[in-house]
Amino acid sequence: MLHDGGQMASQFGLIIRHTFSRKGLFALNALFLGIMAFSLADITHSLGNSLDDTERIEAMLEGLATVFVAYGVALEEREFLMRISGYYPAHLTPQETYLDHIAHHYGVLLLIVGLVTEVIIQIVKIPDRYIDVVSFEPLVFVLAISCFVIIGYWLVFFCRKLVSGEAYPPAEPTLPDKTGS
What we know:
The structure is a single chain. The chain is mainly alpha-helical. The protein is built from 6 helices and no strands. It has helices at residues 5-19, 22-48, 54-76, 78-84, 94-124, 137-164. Helix 5 runs antiparallel to helix 6 (137-164). It starts with a helix and ends in a 17-residue tail after the last helix. The model has no long low-confidence stretch (mean pLDDT 85).
């Protein structure tokens, strides 16, 4: 039996709304922080052993960078996603607008640092006949890991904003009553 497109669109909209809600973003940030922490622990352990795990380290770093580029793009486009999900304009509030702004901000940061990390990782793949990459491979990996530490810091800060209520617009200032009472 075929489902009608309206039902599928409604289910898609529901998934988008929950995924990019304040709680959904917090859960995604926590998930990505966990994945990143375990991956970076594995990578740093691999850097310290005598085996040549270069290809495995490259693959893990590339995978992380790709995840954060994709997540950055999705965060950047939260407002658009909420519109196509049908949540906006009916539920567009100052709080949602402010959350869109914050998500866009962190999305751009993750996108840029994710892309820079991908470029850093690609440097390792340059053939040795052009640049002697092997001699400074560990330094390149440390630079990539440093980029992920920065991303982790931003994700924690983003989570803090989501939980503390900083993901809401500042209250409008109230003007003093001119009647003197």
